[in-house]
Structures are given as C-alpha cells and as structure tokens.
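Renewal narrative, Specific Aim 1. Our central claim is that a sequence can be written position by position from structural information alone. The example that follows is taken directly from our test logs and has not been curated for this report. It begins with the structure tokens describing the chain, in the order in which they were read.
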C-alpha cells in the first residue's frame, strides 16, 4: 500500500493538473464562441453563394468549356483533409482518420463524380485509383504520412485561415490542379459543427461542382436550411457579357467559399471537442483527487487509532 506521503504527493499533482485542464477548458470555450460566431456569420453568405453556384451549374450543365462543370471518369482524386494543429481534443482527429481510412479502403464514393443529375462511375480498379492529398493542420499531415500517401501541399496551421482572403493559396492550388486535368475530382474531409457536444465528420465533393453535395450540405447546415433550399427547377439566367466570362470570374470565388466554410466548421468543431475533452479531464481529476483524499484520510485515521491503542496499552501495562 502506498504511504500517506506518496498519496499526498499524488493529490497535489492531480490538483495541479486539474487547474491546467480547467484553464484549457475555459480558453477553448472562449475560442469556440469566436469560431462559432464566425461560422454563423458566414452561413448566410454560404447559403446564397451555394444557391447561385448550383443553379449556375444546372443552367450551364450542357456548357462544357468550363473545367469546373465538366464531369469525367475519375482516375485521379485530390483530397483536402482539414484537421487540428494540436492534440488534446478528444476523438476529433481520430474520427477524421477513421473516415479517411474507410474511404480509401472502399473508394466507391471517391470514384463517383456528380454534376446535377448526372453521375459517372469510374471503371478503374480500386488499386489503380490515384489519391493525392492537401493537408490543413499538423495532425492531418501526420495521419496521411502514416498512410504512405502523396501530399502535394501542406498547411501546418489551420488557424491562419481566419478571414476569406487567407484561403486564397489553398483555393488556388485546388482550382489549378483541377483545371489542368491533373485530377478528375476534388473532395474535402472536414468536421461539421452541429453543437458544442456534437460534431460530425463529412466528405464533400468540391469539384466538379455538385448540386447533390451542395444541397445535402445546406440541408445539414442548420434548422433554417429550408429557406435556402435550391428549387427543383433550374433558374433562367440572362448573362452579360457572356457565359465563359461569368463562369471564369464567379466560379473560383464560390469554390473558395466552400473551402473556407469547411475550414471554419472544422475550427469550431475542434475547439468544441477540446472544451469537452478538458471538461471530462477536469471531472476525472476531481473524482480521482476525492478518492485519494478519502484513502489518505483512512490511512491517517488508521495511524491515529494505532497510536491511541499503543498509548492505552502502555498505560495499562504501567498500572
């Protein structure tokens, strides 16, 4: 059995750890509030942007000169993985790694490309499908390297994407790689913020522009999604000066908007997951400290009882 001195030392250590986890919980809560505020602030714009995006895709579905609207057999896929920079956030990164491994093991979704109602299934074998990565966050880079996959670009810190302009380098790589037909499909793995206790890992098709994925993302975004839902019919557009110039200007911005929104959702989810993890750690430390305090008091009481018994025995022997 541990001595009372050892137990007392453990109690001090656990209480010190509890103070740290409590402080980290409060910091994460403050960061989560700011991140959620950013997400909620961009959602109305994202709804409107995606509404325009999906209707443009449907209106110009037969217009094949824009690479963003071209659906082709999937042989090479570019995957953007949005993760955290640091640990201590529960199962946040573990869930991303789990979904990623599942999709790589059974790549049926990765091999399917959509545009509006059109769908093309790749005829290549699973082992012939080429999947390359762009990582956002150190943890995502580490998990992809463990899978021995090619990383064409890495952004070690996702916190640098705080305003829309910061997403430009990532969006530029994605758009350029797809435009030159180096990849036939671009998807993003990220964590969708539902509430402080619920976050869901998602895989979304970014390119080619997919009405199916956009509508699904809008439907899952919040309870007000119905007012932003895209109608079943394609809207008629009068385009000036011409469809090519319009698409060349607006589509890259709307694609960047999708990436930016995915990063913001992941940031809010990360801080929420870390807050919950630190709260659980604080509660566990408090429970452990209470158990050790009880054990310490029992040992101390036993020693006092033993000393009283020895004194009583000595007094009886003298008399």
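The sequence written for that structure reads:
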């Amino acid at each position: 059995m541990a001595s009372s001195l050892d137990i007392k030392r453990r109690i001090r250590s656990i209480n010190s750890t509890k103070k740290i986890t409590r402080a980290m919980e409060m910091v994460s809560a403050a960061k989560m509030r700011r991140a959620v505020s950013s997400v909620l602030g961009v959602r109305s714009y994202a709804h409107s942007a995606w509404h325009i995006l999906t209707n443009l895709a449907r209106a110009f579905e037969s217009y094949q000169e824009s690479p963003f609207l071209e659906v082709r057999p999937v042989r090479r896929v570019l995957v953007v993985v949005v993760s955290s920079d640091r640990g201590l956030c529960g199962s946040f990164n573990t869930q991303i790694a789990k979904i990623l491994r599942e999709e790589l093991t059974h790549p049926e979704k990765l091999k399917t490309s959509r545009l509006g109602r059109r769908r093309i299934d790749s005829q290549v074998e699973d082992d012939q499908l080429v999947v390359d990565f762009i990582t956002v966050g150190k943890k995502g880079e580490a998990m992809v390297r463990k899978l021995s996959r090619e990383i064409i670009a890495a952004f070690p810190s996702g916190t640098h994407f705080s305003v829309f302009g910061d997403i430009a380098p990532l969006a530029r790589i994605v758009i350029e790689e797809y435009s030159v037909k180096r990849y036939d499909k671009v998807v993003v793995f990220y964590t969708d913020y539902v509430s402080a206790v619920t976050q869901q890992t998602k895989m979304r098709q970014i390119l080619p522009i997919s009405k199916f994925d956009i509508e699904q993302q809008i439907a899952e975004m919040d309870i007000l999604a119905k007012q932003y839902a895209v109608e079943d019919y394609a809207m008629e557009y009068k385009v000036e000066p011409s469809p090519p110039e319009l698409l060349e200007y607006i589509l890259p911005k709307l694609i960047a908007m999708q990436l930016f929104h995915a990063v913001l959702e992941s940031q809010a989810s990360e801080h929420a997951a870390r807050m919950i993890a630190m709260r659980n750690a604080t509660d566990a430390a408090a429970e452990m400290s209470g158990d050790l305090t009880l054990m310490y008091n029992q040992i101390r009481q036993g020693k006092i009882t033993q000393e009283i018994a020895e004194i009583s025995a000595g007094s009886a022997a003298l008399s």
